[in-house]
Write a structure and sequence with these properties.
The complex is a heterodimer of chains A (321) and B (390). Chain A is an alpha+beta fold and 321 residues long. Chain A has nine helices and 14 strands. Chain A has two domains: 115 residues, Hotdog Thioesterase (Thiol Ester Dehydrase, Chain A, Roll); 124 residues, OB fold (Dihydrolipoamide Acetyltransferase, E2P). In chain A, strands 1, 2, 3, 4, 5 and 6 form a six-stranded antiparallel beta sheet that branches. In chain A, strands 12-11-10-13-14 form a five-stranded antiparallel beta sheet, covered by helices on one side. The mean pLDDT of chain B is 97. In chain B, the strands form two sheets. A nine-stranded mixed beta sheet of chain B has the order 3-2-4-7-1-8-11-10-9. Chain B has a single domain, classed as Thiolase/Chalcone synthase (Peroxisomal Thiolase, Chain A, domain 1). In chain B, helix 1 packs across helix 2. The longest helix of chain B is centred in the middle third of the chain and has 16 residues. Classes of the chains: A alpha+beta (321), B alpha/beta (390). The interface between A and B is large, with 41 and 45 residues.
Chain lengths: 321, 390
């Protein structure tokens, strides 16, 4: 009776995937320099011998996390991989592919370092399978977490570091991708009429306007055709500064509308000019919203037909003004 | 005192069962409730000549009239603004009878609000048109502000900020309602009281509102029969006299979102209703032997206690903690279990409970009730009545 897929997969646990493979070059100062400069490492012990001596070291040391770099296969082998006749790693990947686990994403890398590397060390590494999880449902698709252990040694066989390396080998959501992409749900439409059209049109131009009675200069919001103070039907608008304070808010959890991310912070803000406005807070965690906090305007182009003013915490500069 | 005070009385009440899925049309629920209320009053359908309902009602007066066998109608009107209409229907009926426009007026409300169109799901997907009512939602729904719980939460957050009230203060209303419902066999939550800890542990709906701050949704129907005080004397039930009935819409009023007033920690439209009730009746909050306060969401019960004068501004939390709203307190609250506990009948079941309190037939009858105040939907143009035994 032939083994099931599960059995064949589990037979890899404990097996070596990559045989001890020596680095192309020994640990050397020019490569350390590339690393230190590229990553902007400030610690002088990597290049300055005197600094290294001052810390009790005999020589400069390679950055610890650089250990992976020493054993990378390099450019030539990447562009012209050599098909090894007996390559356990390739065999393992083939088995994963057979199960449909054709995609990979790295999830964890845990290093343990035993000693620092100095120029002249010649690193080699091997890799073994530690565990393979049962199939799990993940956001990316159904997959298995494969944990391997890489062991880094010097020429004498002394262990320099170990690395637990966890990847998710998953079945890409082919069916979902094949379907035509569902359009993003749109925010509920504004009901535009002769009275409120100007406000939403201005918003499309990223102008937050406030209706003003031209007879008595009183500002009003929400908009309306007549001034409740002097009964005038004549009005124009003023442009708001965009500075506001948080007057009240709610953190919406349920029910959920597909156009929004929840928890959703919905707020009433008081504009510097004195009128209030219902809006959303952006970039402010629900627990950080505090009544009275200073806010500033930001524009949300929600979709082709809808632009809305939203508010974020006022920048420090805004607060000084 | 107004000449309207005591001029009419509620002499019949009738309801369907309160359920989550009635399995019947809203029209049938309405017919059942109206028929039951007429029978309770000791009258015949043909005696009825007036009908009042909500603008939100799906069945027009003519459908009720021809199915129930009411015949000619000389008065019919509707009251707007959702649950704010409840006591307003009584006000319209009382005014019509007082003015001689009708003799026997039935007020009713019926819906499949749980199994059909659920108000709690919000306005986000309602069709658009260009009328002013619909356009008002343009300031809310594009930002995700579309449900009654969210609308109330915005007020509640500010109330907490200004008066230091806490979620537990809101929760105490829930606990009281559910305690009364637990002993009311008609209540959905019959036999299911809650603790304050359970309120606190219930999930967020719209912070600061927990699930247990929000009332249930219900299928059912409720009707009330009004006649003149004169005629009430000849009918079998002890009359519940309408000693006050008023509507109120405040300055800069919006539907559930009056966020633009100088202060939003109160609901001035209810203060306006209260002042009229006290003026019409010559009574005050201190004269009330019970209170049926609209409780679709707990925070507005606190605001109502303050607007009606049961306590001062910002003092509702302490007033509730004092035990005044308990069955043995000065003013027992929502003896039927409220909408949180009994049923969400858009406030009409609360008026029926007030009638039972005056009759002395509530399942949670606290003591002799001479006067009871009933309020309608909060956050909207609203209404209230005072029913009395005199």
């Amino acid at each position: 009776m032939s083994a099931t897929y599960e059995e064949r997969l589990n037979a890899w646990v404990g097996k070596q995937l990559v045989r001890p493979t020596p680095a192309a070059d020994p640990v050397n100062v020019p490569m350390i320099r590339h690393w230190v400069e590229a990553l902007d490492v400030a610690n002088p012990v990597h290049l300055d011998v005197e600094a290294a001596h001052a810390t009790g070291r005999g020589d400069v040391v390679a950055p610890a996390s650089m250990i992976q770099a020493w054993i990378m296969r390099g450019y030539a082998k990447t562009v012209r991989p050599q098909a090894g006749a007996d390559d356990p790693y390739a065999e393992f990947i083939a088995l994963l592919n057979e199960g449909g686990y054709t995609s990979v994403v790295a999830t964890d890398s845990d290093f343990e370092f035993m000693r620092e590397l100095v120029p002249g060390d010649h690193v080699s590494a091997d890799e073994s399978v530690e565990s393979i999880s049962p199939e799990k449902t993940t956001g990316l698709g159904a997959g298995r977490f494969v944990t391997t252990v890489k062991t880094y040694r010097d020429a004498s066989g002394e262990v320099l570091a170990t690395q637990k390396w966890r990847t998710l080998r998953f079945k890409p959501k082919a069916a979902a991708q094949a379907e035509p992409e569902k359009p993003q749900a749109l925010r509920p439409r504004a009901a535009i009429n002769l009275d409120n059209q100007f406000w939403f049109e201005a918003a499309k131009e990223h102008r937050l306007v406030i209706q003003r009675c031209t007879a008595c200069q009183t500002l009003r919001h929400p908009v309306g055709p007549q001034c409740p103070h002097c009964q005038s039907f004549d009005w124009d608008t003023v442009e708001a500064s965009g500075r506001a304070t948080l007057y009240s808010f709610t953190v919406a959890h349920h029910p959920r509308h597909p156009a929004f991310d929840y928890p959703l912070v919905i707020a009433v803000v008081e504009l510097e000019e004195g009128t209030r406005l219902i809006t959303n807070l952006v970039g402010i965690a629900p627990e950080d919203a505090v009544i009275g906090m200073p806010l500033e305007l930001e524009w949300l182009d929600a979709d082709a037909d809808l632009t809305l003013p939203v508010f974020r915490a006022a920048s420090a500069a805004g607060e000084e003004n | 005192m107004s000449s309207l005070s005591g001029a009419t009385a509620i002499v019949g009440i009738g309801a369907t069962e309160f359920s989550k899925e009635s399995g019947r049309s809203e029209l049938q629920l309405g017919c059942e409730a109206v028929t039951a209320a007429i029978a309770d009053a000791g009258l015949e359908p043909g005696d009825v000549d007036g009908l009042v309902t909500f603008t939100a009602e799906s069945s027009s007066e003519i459908h009720i009239a021809r199915n129930v066998g009411i015949g000619d109608l000389t008065f019919f009107s509707r009251v707007g603004y959702g649950g704010g209409a409840a006591a307003g229907t009584v006000a319209h009926a009382a005014a019509a009878i007082h003015a001689g426009l009708a003799d026997v007026v039935v007020c009713w409300r019926s819906f499949n609000e749980r199994s059909g169109e659920r108000y709690g799901l919000g306005q986000a997907n309602r069709p658009m048109d260009t009328n002013a009512d619909r356009a008002a939602y343009s300031w809310m729904t594009p930002f995700g502000l579309s449900t009654p719980a969210q609308w109330v939460a915005m007020f509640a957050q500010r109330y907490m900020h200004e008066y230091g009230a806490t979620s537990e203060d809101f929760g105490r209303i829930s606990v009281i309602d559910r305690a009364r419902a637990a002993t009311n066999p008609k209540a959905h939550f019959y036999g299911r009281p809650i603790t304050l800890e359970e309120h606190q542990a219930s999930r967020w709906i719209a912070e600061p509102l927990h699930l247990l701050d929000c009332c249930q949704e219900t299928d059912g129907g409720q009707a009330l029969v009004l006649v003149s005080a004169e005629r009430a004397k000849d009918l079998p039930q002890k009359p519940a006299y309408v000693v006050g009935a008023a509507q109120g819409s405040g300055e800069d009023q919006h539907m559930m979102t009056s966020y633009y007033r100088p202060d939003i920690s109160g609901i001035p439209e209810m203060g306006l209703v209260g002042r009229q009730l006290w003026e019409q009746s010559g009574l005050s909050a201190a004269d009330m032997d019970a209170a049926i306060l609209y409780d679709h969401f707990t925070p507005f019960v606190l605001a109502q206690l303050e607007e009606l004068g049961f306590c001062g501004r910002g003092e509702a939390s302490d007033f509730i903690r004092s035990g005044a709203l308990e069955l043995d307190g000065a003013v027992p609250l929502n003896t039927h279990g409220g909408q949180l506990g009994e049923a969400y009948l858009h406030g009409m079941n609360g008026i029926a409970e007030a009638v039972r309190l005056v009759r002395g037939t509530s399942v949670n009858q606290p003591k002799a009730v001479d006067n009871v105040v009933v309020t309608a939907g909060t956050g909207v143009p609203t209404s209230g009545v005072v029913l009395g035994a005199r």
